[in-house]
Amino acid sequence: MREINIGLLGCGTVGTGVAKLLFEQRDLIAARLGAVLVLRRAADLDPDRDRGIRFPDGVLISDARKVVEEPGIDIIVEMIGGEGIARELILKAIERGRHVVTANKALIAAHGNEIISSAAENKVDLYFEASVGGCMPIIKTLRESLVGNRIAAMTGILNGTCNYILSKITDEGSTFADALAVAQRQGYAEADPTLDVEGYDTAHKIAILSALAYGTPINLKDVYIEGIAHITPMDIEFAGQFGYRIKLLAISKHRGDAVEARVHPTMIPFGNLLSNVNGTLNAVTVSGDASGDILLYGRGAGMLPTASAVVADLVDLARNILSGTAGRVPVLGFQPDKIRAIPIMPIDQISSHYYIRFSVLDRPGVLSAVSGILGRHGISIQSVHQKGRKTDGAVPVVMLSHRAREASVQKALREIAALEVTAARPALIRIEDESLED
Amino acid sequence: MREINIGLLGCGTVGTGVAKLLFEQRDLIAARLGAVLVLRRAADLDPDRDRGIRFPDGVLISDARKVVEEPGIDIIVEMIGGEGIARELILKAIERGRHVVTANKALIAAHGNEIISSAAENKVDLYFEASVGGCMPIIKTLRESLVGNRIAAMTGILNGTCNYILSKITDEGSTFADALAVAQRQGYAEADPTLDVEGYDTAHKIAILSALAYGTPINLKDVYIEGIAHITPMDIEFAGQFGYRIKLLAISKHRGDAVEARVHPTMIPFGNLLSNVNGTLNAVTVSGDASGDILLYGRGAGMLPTASAVVADLVDLARNILSGTAGRVPVLGFQPDKIRAIPIMPIDQISSHYYIRFSVLDRPGVLSAVSGILGRHGISIQSVHQKGRKTDGAVPVVMLSHRAREASVQKALREIAALEVTAARPALIRIEDESLED
Q: Which residue of A has its CA nearest to B275?
């Protein structure tokens, strides 16, 4: 049986998962593929660490460069992560005519365009299914299954760490800091959680998905990013009273000649399936003009779920190699000459429904001052709720707005925050609820 | 730009949707594919009916055979439905070296093995993504994305008509007959609803998915099938009190050297995402040993959602044609020589948790008679609920069992039904709830 030779760079958790699947599912994969995926060489800076699996003698070495340079390797799997050595080795592998599989969303989001053009020049394939949504086939779905659809929008829970923390606050009323500490103890959050809780990781993913959906170059720098560190148990409780859950959503919408691409905590109604996606799980909804909404759900991270997606890419590539058809599906889902830049709207220009919580002194005239400012900025309020609980002499007042312009809302909030009667900066959370009147 | 020529058989709702997408998304598809999908010829017995779209002159004819025989057609799309003429024309197309796309689940479930071997002999491809789950890419996910996984189980809501009717009974307490009548008025159920409400359509789909998941020939005849006509508002209400919703589920499990494949109304807990899939929507969960559970959700029927899946198949096939690689992915996801028969367990041999509702005369000793019979058959009860409402002198008694053998449960129910104190045949609904103790 024909063999396809694989070189693996990086044997951390996911790299080890890939090796494990290639060893343990070798016959199963061969029964499906009609060829054997052979892990010819793997590299890790610490090759001697116990990984719970046995590599054949001589397969696991310490020098990743040697793997890239080794003759006879068909596909390089990059599992090092980060944007430094990973980028360098991927580019080198591509120049040597190797096809590449990676799960590195940070790299693809930041340097994908460069890597993609290098792959095109060298007529090799670049696959990165595992970079978004772990085992969920969201990239294949966009590139292949929705090929007859204009994509109107995507909405995703794409970071398990944030979803775990928000689920924890929701279920147990803990603070963000406590929930983060639990997530760190459970291994769901890194020691430095910035990349996850500040929304960057989610932004990487929605930047990649937006490019695939709309046929535009990857544009990370214009994605609006807001993390979850400011979400309080109080806001989550109020949200629940209005029939909403708070999730860190990646939202991407095609708006004529521009795109919305934003990451922020968002209130969504209980009836929305995404609101029932809890713990570390991921899910994403895609709206196609023919398909309507479809949703994919699954483990967005972890050793074997991520490896499952990597192996799917490897088999896809192996089928291309066996039939001599690199470039069968273009990397971004559109033919390279059809990719055109579509600008991402600045967050100021979007419009949305808003949840706004003011902390105001309990004095006559306060509500009228606040609502006067909102009115002057053209923000119309659909409901006001004064909640009785006094903290430091202030009471929370919650307002849900009709659809309003973000720029106006931000200006109004700045004016309101400057009032003498406001005890703290107002809390603002965007609402995605199709059932609301505009 | 290279053209791929398509012949369409059958211009009913879905066939018209395919034509519509090919016309309206022509440039979009070409931008992704790098070639143009041209609807060269289409056939329908009634070519003159107004379909709301304009076919170029001469494209729509009345004789489907002519389309199959026309030189220069690359792909035949079969949208006639049924197992008669559709089968004949597909086999003829394959013999003439045409690739085939169909959405015909009844045909694939009943005659798929024959058609697949004919396709293999003639070295053409056969694609049928639209046959299961409409726009959801469940077949591609099984064949390609989960290729590194052993599939342990699948659970699906695969028939929109049944899901609509059950949602209606749940939301409005209507009877099955009333809900069906509404579904018929709304166009969600056929005049003769047998295929849907008796579970056959769902069985077709799970037969196809089981073959793809486990690498076994399609086996429709051994799938256990039970419809929803016996589901009462009372059982749905009791289910709700226990935290369950009733859905018509397709359940498929790999059990060592056998497979469970069954279609029946099933109680699932509110926390299960499938319990929140309402109306005409479809969803399916697949458990892979590496991926864990993934779920796909979307419109399982309808003109454009189904056409979306057909166009995805067309583009896949077009890519194969452009690169000369028919058979790139084997039809059932496994190399033909690796497909082996795995028997489906008779329903008697499965084990499950059960909801059993007895209608008994309100007399002393009745409960002990009933539970005595259950005990003699080794069925252990985890909770008993006597509900106060008397109907015709009888009261409903509801029991939830621990895990029990289906054969024992059926025997016990027959004995209980024969008791003098039982007013009607007991109602039996299987429960899928992983949180229950065995």
A: A273
* Active-site pick, B205, B221, B390, B411: B205
Query: What is the least distance, in Å, from the CA of A338 to any CA of chain B?
Result: 6
How high is the pLDDT of residue B361?
87
State how far residue A119 is from chain B, nearest Cα, in angstroms.
18
User: SS3 for B73?
Assistant: coil
C-beta neighbour count of A62 within 10 angstroms: 11
Q: What is the pLDDT of residue A392?
A: 67
State residue B36 phi and psi, 5-degree precision: -105, 130
For chain B, say whether A144 makes contact (Cβ under 8 Å): yes
SS3 string, chain B, reads: CCEEEEEEECCCHHHHHHHHHHHHCHHHHHHHHCCEEEEEEEECCCCCCCCCCCCCCCCEECCHHHHHHCCCCCEEEECCCCCCHHHHHHHHHHHCCCEEEECCHHHHHHHHHHHHHHHHHCCCCEECHHHCCCCCCHHHHHHHHCCCCCEEEEEEECCHHHHHHHHHHHHHCCCHHHHHHHHHHHCCCCCCCHHHHCCHHHHHHHHHHHHHHHCCCCCCCCCEECCCCCCCHHHHHHHHHCCEEEEEEEEEEEECCEEEEEEEEEEEECCCHHHHCCCCEEEEEEEECCCEEEEEEEECCCHHHHHHHHHHHHHHHHHHHHHCCCCCCCCCCCCHHHCCCCCECCHHHCEEEEEEEEEEECCCCHHHHHHHHHHHCCCCEEEEEECCCCECCEEEEEEEECCEEHHHHHHHHHHHHCCCCEEEEEEEEEECCCCCCC
Chain B residues with CB-CB distance to A324 below 8 A: 323
Q: What is the largest CA-CA distance in chain B?
A: 83
- B147–A32 CB contact, under 8 Å: yes
pLDDT tens-place string over residues B19-54? 999 999 999 999 999 999 999 999 999 999 999 999
Pick among A16, A21, A77, A135 to test the B interface (most B CBs inside 10 A): A135
> Do residues B338 and A343 make contact, with C-beta atoms less than 8 angstroms apart?
no
ipTM: 0.95
Among A137, A140, A290, beta carbon nearest to B305: A290
Give yes or no: A205 in active site: yes
Q: What is the mean pLDDT of residues A291-319?
A: 97
Domains and CATH numbers, chain A: 3-135+303-337 (3.40.50.720), 138-299 (3.30.360.10), 347-431 (3.30.70.260)
Question: Quick one: average pLDDT of A126-133?
Answer: 98
pTM listed for this prediction: 0.96
Query: What pLDDT does residue B388 have?
Result: 66
Non-local (6+) Cβ contacts of A399 within 8 A are A355, A356, A357, A358, A371, A374, A381, A383, A384, A385
- CB-nearest partner of A311 from B141, B148, B296: B148
Which among B141, B295, B311 has CB closest to A148? B311
Identify the three-state secondary structure at position B330: coil
Q: Which of A140, A205, A247, A253 is catalytic?
A: A205
pLDDT for the residue A91: 98
State the average pLDDT over residues A197-218.
98
Q: Round to whole Å and give the CA distance between B398 and B420.
A: 18
Closest-CA distance, B376 to chain A, in angstroms, reads 42
Average pLDDT of span B79-107 = 97
CA distance A320 to A323: 5
Nearest Cα neighbor of B41 from B22, B24, B14 is B22
